[in-house]
Amino acid sequence: MAYFVLPGTGKRVYRLAIARRIVDGTARGARDRSPAGLARRRTRVLRRALRPSRRLRIGLGPWLRALPAQLPDPALTAMLARLDPHVRVAYVLRHMQGLPPYAVRDQLVELGVRDPWAMIRAADEVPPPSARRSGRFESALRPVRTRSTAPLAVAAVLTAALVAALVLTDGDERDDEPAAREPRLVAAAPDAWTRGRTLDAWPPRGDLVRDRAFTRRAAAAWEAAPGERAARRPGAAPQLLYAGRDGGAPLAVLRLGDRIALYTPGGGLDVAAAGTDPSAPIALGGGRYLLAPWDASPETLAGERLAVSSGVTAPARAGTDCGRGPLFHLGGRTVGDLGGPRATVLAYHSPDYRPGRTERPARLGPEGRKVWNRLACQTDPGPVSEAMAWNFWSGTIPHGGKHADWVCTRLTRIDGRTTASATLLGAKDRATGACDARRPVSGTWWKSPSGRWYYLAAAARGLVPHAEGVDRSTTRHRLLVAPAARTSPVTVTAR
To answer: Is pLDDT at 149 greater than 60 in this prediction?
Structure first.
């Protein structure tokens, strides 16, 4: 991380040595072992990498001898060097470290960035470089047998910092079997989230947290789940997030890495990949959601207070036939159910939206909720961290058509991948293929009430749609209409 954030000057071998020296110099021993301590150390590393002191170049011998045999991709290094420093930080955190946008925003605020969302948006718009074979060190710079022990110590500290704060054990009972074989859970301290907003800092909540027999059964179910033991790192234990009577039935929520499991005595264990977004509510079933400890005041879509008990909301269900759609407000954002194990942040842009403006999470208004109530049922269910719907064209379809909205929907998956597709919302909703979420344009065939076929295409504000493969097309108010045989292949672009 420090290597890619450093200014792009000098030889890469020295940059990498300086980066490792920065990481070594920010170590604080045992204080780095908690999630909050690790977050503070990351801030120290980023601050020093953004403005490296000239003194870091003096006495680099031990770090040069400890370097690996290969350097990072030179194309990526060169691309990052051309970015604004704060955009570079956002890119590294977002696309290389895999942090969710809200965590990146919080980190940029810690670094004193005045407009973090603008930096994140600029980073998201950076095209990935074409990968090239990494350059190698000269033989004199290859690692030697007597390499410095400092990098090993740093690795040990960083590994230890990933372990959760407390191990839940029952000190009053003993077991005849060795303790190492007994399933165990870890849990964060009750106030851990006040020192760092990470998923590791979620404390266990619920009225069954102290029920050791119940939590042991949940841990044993995780231990016995097919595939979970093989996927788990040696010595890693799941984190207990919740143990209580959700809707009257005992329920435990466990988490390890990006996987979350719901355990019920009668239903067994349900494990799903859910990402590591620190703020996304966890679906418990029945319309109830486990909130982040810092999200204590959710509101209904009507703006009324939504009851919360032990971090769990009262039932909040989408008002759609498919059961997916907007759910409730959390602070300045609206979350919804798109069929994944965690709620999704929903965003909306009206037809008047222009790219380039600062994007901040905002509550959905009536228009945005109406669009998402229709889109949610058109979206394939799955784990999505963020979803943005841009209603890039709205109007009446000519030749007897009715009012319609053309929407480009961008989904950000929990692994950071994004997909974007267009949907024409009209008398009958229809998918119209992939779209560019930054310059949306889309087209489709449409049959008028008279039975005649037309090709329709629309583009966002400031763009004009063009269609190759049709004749005698007319364009008014960013809507292209062309009578044509449906068999004609058409290519749509925007200018």
So the answer is: no
**Nearby residues of 326 by Cβ (< 8 Å), 6 or more positions away:** 301, 318, 334, 335, 336, 346, 364, 369, 372, 373, 376
Sheet of 479-483: strands edge to edge?
A: 441-447, 453-459, 479-483, 474-476
What is the rounded CA–CA span in Å between residue 188 and residue 229?
22
CA distance 299 to 297: 7
Closest residue by Cα to residue 423 from 414, 413, 437: 437
Instruction: Specify the pairing of strand 325-330 against strand 312-313.
Output: unpaired
**392, 374 in Cβ contact below 8 A?**
no
First to last CA, the chain: 38
Give pLDDT tens digits for 235-285.
Answer: 678 999 999 997 778 999 999 988 999 999 887 889 998 988 999 999 998
Tens-place pLDDT, residues 332-384: 999 999 999 999 999 999 998 887 665 666 899 999 999 999 999 888 888 89
**Beta bridge pairs of residue 264:** 268
- How far is the C-alpha of 396 from the C-alpha of 425, rounded, in Å? 11
420 pLDDT higher than 90: yes
Tell me which H or E stretch contains 384: strand 384-396
Which whole number is the average pLDDT over 92-117?
81
| Look-up of token digits 């039935």 | 249
- The CA R_g of the chain, rounded to the nearest whole Å, is 26
How many CA atoms lie within 13 Å of 480's alpha carbon, on the beta-carbon side?
Answer: 30
CB atoms within 10 A of CB 11: 9
Three-class SS string for 115-148?
CHHHHHHHHHCCCCCCCCCCCECCHHHCCCCCCC
Encoded tokens for 240: 């207990």
Give the C-alpha separation, 4 to 25, whole Å: 17
Residue 183 CA to residue 214 CA, distance in Å, equals: 12
Check pLDDT > 70 for residue 142.
no
Question: What is the per-residue pLDDT for 31?
Answer: 66
CA angle 50/55/59 to nearest 5° reads: 120
CA-based angle 437:281:290, to the nearest 5?
A: 170
- Ramachandran region, residue 227 (left: φ > 0; alpha: ψ -120 to 50; beta: rest): left
Q: Which tokens in the block code for residue 63?
A: 């770090």
Report the distance separating Cα 113 and Cα 110, nearest Å: 8
Q: What is the mean pLDDT of the chain?
A: 81
* 239 bridge partner residues: 186, 255
Q: Please check the confidence at residue 446 and state whether its pLDDT lies above 60.
A: yes
Number of other residues whose CB lies within 10 A of the CB of residue 294: 14
| Whether the Cβ atoms of residue 363 and residue 299 lie closer than 8 Å to each other | no
54-92 tens-digit pLDDT: 777 677 677 666 666 566 667 777 777 778 888 888 888
- pTM across the whole model: 0.64
